[in-house]
Amino acid sequence: MRISGLTGQAQRAGIEARHTPAARLKHNRSRLSPQQSELGWSRAGGNGQTRRVFGVLIRIDSVTKRYPDGTVAVDRLSLEIPDRAITVLVGPSGCGKTTTLRMINRMVEPSEGTIWIDGQDSRRQPVNTLRRSMGYVIQNAGLFQHRTIVDNIATVPRLLGWSKDRARSRARELMERVGLDASLARRYPYQLSGGQQQRVGVARALAADPPVLLMDEPFSAVDPVVRKGLQDELLRIQDELGKTIVFVTHDIDEAVKLGTMVAVLRTGGRLAQYAPPADLLSNPADAFVEDFLGADRGIRRLSFFSAAGLDLLTAPIVAVDATAEQIARAAQGAPYLLVTGIDGKPLGWSEPGALTAGSVDTGRLLSYGRPFVAGEDSLRSALDCAVLSPAGWAVAVDGEGRATGVISQTAIAEAIRGAHEAAPGVGGTTGAGEPKALR
Amino acid sequence: MNRFFDIPSDLQHDWIGLVGLHLREALLPVLGGLLLALPIAQLCVRLRWLYPPVLWVTTVLYAIPSLAFFVVLIDYTGQTELTVMIPLTVYTLVVLVPAIVDGVRSVPQETLAAATAMGFGPVRRYVQVQLPIATPAIVAGLRVATVSSISLVSVGMLIGNQGALGNLLHDAQIYNRPELAWNSVLTTAALAVLVDALLVGVRVLLTPWMPSGSGATRTRKEATAR
């Protein structure tokens, strides 16, 4: 089961675009807009000279893992894991995702097939040398409870023969990078919260600056708020360091959020689909993947469209000290007006008739819900704002929180239709090989 | 009271000398037992099937009365301290082997997987990860073994002058001086309590990484508050 075709797409789309502003945008948690990503590809590939910034680092070549009792954990799996990107292995329990991960650093030896690391058979080099070149992060962090935080992080450099001082100063450097206070250096793991322990786990994996990072459900044992923080932190670190990350999770939302490429595995260790997350959401390969993605994949897919292109209206915005004439002009054709403060920040919605010129009673305004940032947020956020707003209109703000415009649910719906036309296949009807706008 | 520490000359030691002898005869077997138990336990951890038979053997050995050991050993090692210390060494295994095995096995799977993934070989992993984390369990075993050994040394009086403080019991009988029996019992008990406290101290020194008491709770709160 070779899927080099899909990987080719990944290279054109996700991977080579990683250095473009659009890709950066995505890795800053906002999603690629169609325009931006197209710009990215044409820059990378459109001028005739395909710039292969990144290649395939890990090639899993029809690998099978069969246990002595006959259980097949992984079944003829082939995957090409791109260099300097996050590849997520996702699937229900028993789909062999952890086994696959552990075969990469040979904690589990494949029964058949070969894993190529940077063009070399992984069995060629001594197993501990191989492992020291791959950072490993595990659920519950797996810290050495008998060592201080700084010594935990310094473990692999020490194994590689660094001096104690050098290893420790490197460890302190990494603590800063993963957002750990330097005062924690001499503490022991039991003195840290779960989230902090997981940060130590990430720092420890990065300590010897390995090109590859293997992450086995690293964030699944922490609470949702901490998990979101850790995910954002991982994306930030990845933006800075550009590691080849293989990430195992059972959480499809996490996969979609973090993955440059997502491999969906099904029970029995077979590959169901290997695609960039936006493709996965628009074009699930079969009923299993569709089911695994959940019921709201259409809404979720909107995260991949930028809200930057929305036609924002500024007319229905009035300042808190607006004159009767200004209010009357703004009220033409708009059922609700957004009242802003002197500083331009939104205060709330009001029907035009309820406004008194010169001094608006701010206590009587309707809440404006949660605004979206036009340049950064996705269509999903914009739609969410409109749905939450009592007026049915979403408020767009700039980076400083000043209102830049408003838009109705209807207008957002039109924009969504437009985005889907530009990126067909949301209904799952596109044939293979048809060009897709978003990857 | 003077007669309390007036040790009959047939014991060839004063009170302090008896205490020293007693400690040597009690602690050397524990040390020897630990040195034997470490590789045995490591084998039991690596080869799971070996553990039940090993446990069975140590239990049976523990059930053999020391007198029986003496009868066999006296032909080879004579009426010496060694004859007393060999059975005592064997007896410690019944506590130490399971203590080490359970301690090593209690190391969390994630920690082991992380160590393996970071490129620890089996030996390095055992010495640098499993044993240190098993330290509290091992020390707990050592405490039981030591206290039991301190009380068992007394049986050395069965082969003559090798029971250290235990010989005071014998002398109390033949010289009709009950205070010597009190001396024997109280000194032995005091030694056991002291050595046990010392081991607790050693454990605290060796495991600064263990959560303990209110201090730990306070630091944890501080950590979460960040």
Automatic annotation (TrEMBL), chain B:
Keywords, sorted A to Z: Membrane, Transmembrane, Transmembrane helix, Transport
Subcellular location: Cell membrane; Membrane
Matches recorded under SUPFAM superfamilies: MetI-like (SSF161098)
Transmembrane segments: 26-47, 54-76, 82-101, 133-160, 180-206
One GO cellular component, as annotated: plasma membrane
Family annotation (InterPro entries): ABC_transp_perm/SBD, MetI-like, MetI-like_sf
Main location: membrane
Keyword Membrane included in the entry's annotation: yes
Top-level taxon in the UniProt lineage: Bacteria
Gene Ontology biological process terms, A to Z: glycine betaine transport; transmembrane transport
Domain (ABC transmembrane type-1) ranges: 19-204
Membrane topology recorded in Swiss-Prot or TrEMBL: Multi-pass membrane protein
Pfam family, one: BPD_transp_1
Similarity-based family: Belongs to the binding-protein-dependent transport system permease family.
PANTHER family linked to this entry: GLYCINE BETAINE/L-PROLINE TRANSPORT SYSTEM PERMEASE PROTEIN PROW (PTHR30177), OSMOPROTECTANT IMPORT PERMEASE PROTEIN OSMW (PTHR30177:SF4)
Name this protein carries in UniProt: ABC transporter permease
Species the sequence originates in: Streptomyces griseoruber
